[in-house]
Design brief:
Elements lengths: L15 E2 L24 E6 L1 E2 L11 H7 L7 E3 L5 E3 L2 E6 L5 E6 L13 H11 L34 E5 L2 E5 L6 H11 L5 H4 L4 H4 L15 E7 L3 E6 L12 E6 L5 H6 L5 E2 L12 H4 L5 E6 L4 E6 L9 H10 L2 H8 L4 E3 L22 H10 L8 E6 L3 H15 L5 E6 L1 H10 L4 E6 L9 H4 L13 H11 L4 H18 L2 E7 L1 E6 L23
Parallel strand pairs: 2-12, 2-13, 17-18, 17-19
Antiparallel strand pairs: 1-3, 4-5, 6-7, 7-9, 8-9, 10-11, 11-12, 14-21, 15-19, 15-20, 16-20
Length: 543
């Protein structure tokens, strides 16, 4: 289920949206006009875009993660108040020196084939996450542990990662390179890394791991739900795991449907969906928000928005290498206009990778001013080639983001630039961005409450670093922050980190939109989305 992650990584940014001309086909089990499935023990929840894979290690999008999290558990889960709660790990302790962390796996945690979830599964998962040949989305988070590089890769892939030690089948230790705040370890590894079943995928070659058949149809899971089927770009059908170690889910079956933003109001009104699942992935469109209030069967649920929308800047392009150029592009975009006109004030201008609501945010940083005259002067001083056209990639799936594209184009053209918009489904856009086939690209992410999580985007060689940004001082500060246990000292380190990213501007930070969530009145309180979305899926129920 959704977690606080950078996850919820490209939370808002990802997925393959079905054609906006109409909603995808509905699951056969859903009763039209009521949304109530057979026996009233079924719930249908919505995402804007479709998952691309159910592989918990190589998944690349928030849409992937949101569905994967219903089937595979992490060690812990995090609530919006930045408190960590047990999942697979029933308890944990830190050594006095802050370098060794002992985790105890819930004794009742089993895979759905009856085999126990063990320390070997955790070791296997971390070995895959740190394997240089596997494109693990959050592998860089493993860089906390002994035996890994600064990018989280195993220094000796022929051997198990040295930073995990198995004590017994249900107990293991994680050993860090230096004194570490246990909350950092929980935030990075505990919340973000799904544990995979070693016995289901052992022996798969690294080159085939991302697309191994098991993860297209995961028959063995340890989460509250089991996989039934996936109708491509339409819906995922799940059933309850009756032997779930935290208690059998109340729902017999769960559908995750792909619902375009333009259809969200009608689907909620007609009871075809019961709830929007995650802020930034399934919000009610702003223009439809007032209409939700008048629906007798639907309640509004506005939540703080932790998803940051931004423009990727390809710093590998010669004409975009200069930080002054990127700073100028930021100042040329009227971001307040986007917040006022497109968000209707339901959000704020973004400053950097750490949301102002989080305790590590540097309050001294203020948004760059909108100053097109100064922006043009800065570009001229930097020798920017105004004859060079810029291509802005625009993915489908997020209506406000799509509407922001022509405004950004107009702002940049007003200072003498030529900007061409190119729209793709998100999977195609992401592939182009990953290959470096772009100048600018619109994306969004939840970078996470702990600053260490954002290393995937901003460290040299980070797994999500599609800007190709590389600053040795940034990498050093990430490592210092990881190996510092004191909050006060970490705060000083990460303030400096934020200031460098602010000045180097590898991304144009646009806005943080509030989450406009809604749910049917038949939904139990446990299923009402919070700022991280719908959590604790085993407790969800309907009247």
């Amino acid at each position: 289920m959704p977690r606080s992650r950078a996850i919820l990584a490209l939370l808002a940014a990802a997925g393959v949206l079905a054609a906006c001309g109409g909603a995808p086909a509905k699951p056969a089990a859903t009763t039209p006009a009521t949304g109530a499935a057979s026996a009233a023990k079924s719930m249908t929840i919505a995402l804007w875009s479709a998952p691309d894979t159910f592989n918990p290690i190589t998944a690349q999008t928030g849409y992937d993660d949101s569905v994967i999290g219903l089937m595979f558990d992490t060690l812990v889960w995090e609530s919006p108040d930045q408190t960590f709660h047990p999942l697979l790990a029933s308890s944990w302790q830190a050594s006095p020196d802050g370098k060794t962390f002992t985790f105890h796996i819930n004794p009742n945690a089993n895979w759905t084939d009856g085999k126990p979830v063990t320390s070997s599964d955790v070791q296997y998962t971390l070995d895959q996450d740190s394997n240089p040949q596997i494109p693990a989305q959050y592998g860089s988070l493993v860089s906390l542990l002994v035996g890994s590089t600064t990018q989280g890769k195993n220094v000796d892939p022929s051997q198990p990662l040295a930073g995990i030690k198995i004590i017994n089948p249900k107990t293991f230790e994680l050993i860090t390179k230096g004194p570490t705040d246990i909350n950092t370890l929980l935030s990075d590894i505990g919340v973000n890394i799904f544990i995979a079943p070693e016995h289901a995928v052992t022996g798969v070659a690294p080159s085939a791991f991302a697309r191994t058949p098991f993860y297209q149809h995961p028959t063995i899971t340890d989460g509250p739900y089991e996989f039934v089927k996936y109708v491509n770009s339409q819906y995922v059908q799940l059933k309850r795991n009756p032997h779930y170690y935290l208690g059998a889910p109340k729902l017999d079956q769960l559908f995750v449907r792909v619902v375009p933003p333009t259809s969200m109001l009608a689907e909620l009104r007609d009871g075809e969906i019961d709830a929007t699942m995650v802020p930034g992935e399934s919000d009610v469109p702003l223009q439809d928000w007032p209409a939700i209030k008048s629906l007798p069967n639907v309640k509004q649920d506005p939540v703080p928005g932790f998803t940051t929308q931004y423009v990727l800047v390809n710093t590998a392009r010669p004409y975009l290498k200069n930080p002054q150029v990127r700073e100028a592009l930021t100042m040329a975009i009227n971001r307040q206009e986007i917040v006022t006109q497109l968000l209707k004030g339901e959000g704020q201008i973004a400053v950097g990778p750490i949301d102002p609501l989080f305790k590590y945010a540097d309050a001294s940083l203020k948004p760059y001013p909108y100053d097109p005259a100064k922006a043009k002067s800065m570009l001229q001083a930097a020798g920017f080639p105004f004859s060079q056209p810029l291509q802005l990639l625009v993915p489908t799936g997020n209506e406000i983001r799509q509407e922001s594209a022509p405004l950004i184009q107009q702002n940049l053209q007003a200072i003498g630039l030529t900007v061409n918009l190119q729209q793709y489904d998100f999977a195609t856009m992401l592939a182009n961005a990953t290959k470096g086939n772009y100048d600018l690209a619109l994306v969004g992410s939840t970078f996470g409450a702990d600053p260490s999580l954002s290393a995937s985007w901003f460290s040299c060689g980070g797994s999500l670093n599609r800007t190709k940004f590389c600053n040795a001082q940034v990498d050093q500060l990430y490592q210092e922050g990881l190996q510092t246990a004191s909050f006060t000292k970490r705060k000083a380190i990460y303030d400096q980190l934020q200031q460098i990213i602010y000045k180097d501007a590898p991304m144009i930070f646009l806005y943080n939109a509030d989450g406009l969530m809604a749910y049917n009145t038949r939904v139990d309180s446990a299923a009402i989305p919070d700022a991280y979305g719908m959590q604790q899926g085993w407790l969800w129920g309907v009247q």
